[in-house]
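Sample intake — DUF4920 domain-containing protein
Collected from: Croceitalea rosinachiae
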Amino acid sequence: MKTFNILIVIFLVVMNRYGLAQSNVSYDKFGTTFEKFEETGSEWKVYESLNATDTISTQIRGEIAEVCQAKGCWMKVDLDNGDQVFVKFKDYDFFVPKDAAQKDVVMNGKAFIEEMSVDEQKHYAEDKGATKEAIAKITKPRKTLRFEADGVLIEK
């Protein structure tokens, strides 16, 4: 009987380790369907090795900080290291719910670093409802962590 119990424990540990155990987490899917990679908690490290001209296909997890209130056409996602990534959706093929802020997200697509122009920064500030005074303070380009998602899973 003791051997049987040990085998059950080993079986459950193996199932949990390889994601075969049933998870209580469910997601709403947007865009292309993709298989979620095992969570490592350090997906943000992909940006450490990128230069401004590099692009890498990957998955990133985080918490949605903000969503475009015009139509859900972009979002900002907080990463575990304190950085924030600006996310657009490939070819505008899909949008996310405008009330998705503070939900966990898994994104599949391409990570890159971009220098955002003053005009583009002002456009996004208008989208989120910034005041004219706040928009006027945008005067220089800035480097941003970017992601073009072809698929998104948002935790329900």
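Post-analysis note: The helical segments are 2-17, 118-127, 132-136.
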